[in-house]
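User: Okay, second chain of the day. Same drill as before: sequence in, structure tokens out.
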Amino acid sequence: MALMMHQTFSSPSCPLFFRKPHFSKTLIRVSATPSHPVPTPPSHSSSPIFLPFLQEQEPTPQHQVQQKEEDEDPNDPILRFFKSRTSTQDPRFESKLSLQKNRRTSWRLASATDPESEAEFDVEEEKEQVVLDPCTSLQGVSGEILHFARNLPENSTLGEVLGPYVGRVGERECVEVLDLMCEEGLVMGCLYFFEWMRLQEPSLVTARACSLLFPMLGRAGMGDEVMILLRNLPKTRQFRDVRVYNASISSLLSCGRYNDAWKVYEEMERNNIHPDPVTCSIMVTVMRKDGHSAKDVWEFFQRMNRKGVEWSSEVLGALLKSFCDEGLKKEALIIQSEMEKKGISSNAIVYNTLMDAYSKSNHVEEAEGLFCEMKAKGVKPTSATYNILMDAYSRRMQPRIIEDLLLEMQEMGLEPNVKSYTCLISAYGRQKRMSEMAADAFLRMKKAGIRPTSHSYTALIHAYSISGWHEKAYSAFENMKREGIKPSIETYTALLDAFRRAGDTQILMKIWKLMLSDKIEGTRVTFNILLDGFAKQGHYMEARDVVFEFGKIGFQPTVMTYNMLMNAYARGGQHSRLPQLLKEMMSLNLNPDSITYSTMIYAYVRVRDFKRAFFYHKQMVKSGQIPDSQSYQKLRSILDVKAATKNRRDKSAILGIINSNMGLLKPKKGKKDEFWKNKKKQKRIQSFAQDG
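Assistant: Same drill. Structure tokens below.
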């Protein structure tokens, strides 16, 4: 029903919930980055220095489409807010941000093997660089300093070898060196070089240099260093710049220091530094990652709006991400529609956010509708767009559609990446007797020169596990380690599941010990796989050890744990242990469910102990834990046959008692003596003699 609030999704040429077998091939091709990008002037309040740190919500304005008026709910607070606003800002100017120059956007696909899940798409950090001529970037003083940073002698710092360059380096050269060192990931070199710049007379530290250094320190997890450098900046007007604070807040966001990010923002308010749209989008992201609700995010946005912060596509992306993460897709569509009416057009990242929300809630048709609308408005899909659709169809086990998406992706000039192929491998691997196709997709990926990730190997191992090829699963695991790819907990879980299915408890124990030696803590799924693998093979002591070991890391037994133990004991002929396990559940305040009772009933029926089977059936009905209709019908059919036999015997016994009490029974003959057979023979002999 959420899409009924967003009528612009439907168009005459592209219906909302229509899926074509083959996608349109006549799409506009736009190059990912211009051939000669122009650096953004540093004086602009929305410098591309800060946007790399809006990891999941930074949108790029491309086109503006004025939407038609739709039916509005007067009681909706979001609509009421937008109707109270006047369109005073210039939408044309708002969309022409200089951030479009030299932009490269990519998305990160989550693990395709998580059953609950979890696959989430995030916008990776967009690298905005100071554009330098590659022929001259390593020449002159900047090139010499960069050479020292690359080949620094042992037990020495960069500042110690830069003595001859005192007075020869200006602010522009320092910014160039910092930018090149950030590109190459020389974190400590950047830190020591910044310290050297600070010690010069006059100081060579500028707001631009801070904006380059802080984000890199945040990505390296050095939040303490960022706070120290920020506190020790000169208290001059140059450093009371919104871009410096944006960079510091972004760096703290990158390393998960959300409380410190709030402190920096509060200091920014105390210093009367006016926030800009980038500040708003960063703080919305901080609130979302810190666990704030969408309502809190909306109130913060309204407060920033009252301060005069202009609306932008960055803010739109941040708001939509917050609402979509809470499942408020209807409200997210209202925000998108109303902002487009105000001149803030939606771009690929905004559509990707909405499509991802719908695909995760298994509304693939709605995601397809957004995809069609996106192309109808001239917004070019990205690799992330196709990966979102591929992930959705992977969960639906429809690899043929993923193959079509790969072909369309290549026709548009987009190269499939490792996430695209991982979705294809997973789609094949989720089905039995399709493991060969999954292995073929894996080989196609390697042939295309794409290096597999742990997710790719996990999908392949899971495919082998489904088909019962546990030897190939272990071989893929060894190849993975040989290539230097570190296995994740999902990889170990898929491998454990392969040998659980095969019933090989020795290898199961070996893999578990290997996982512990790698200091990888298991999940609840890992716990259940190990428990079921040991218990079903009759290794009850090892199963109890699994319960104990996982209990130490916080995974206490659940109803499912006891259901698996009961099933294992029943299969092993130890049905006498089931009442003890049931009492143990009760002592842990775990209420038995329908599976618990059904397991016990079938166990006692198997050994023809119908008295206990009927007793636990009665307990199941009394507690209201009735299984689904099909399972319960099967159980009742078995019990009814046994009850009919028992009832016939009971009926015969009851009739005998009634007849006896009413005197209707025939009197029994006297007890026969031991010579009754001889008496009958004598009578026969006498009768024969008389006849003769």
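The mean pLDDT is 76.

User: Thanks, on to the next one.
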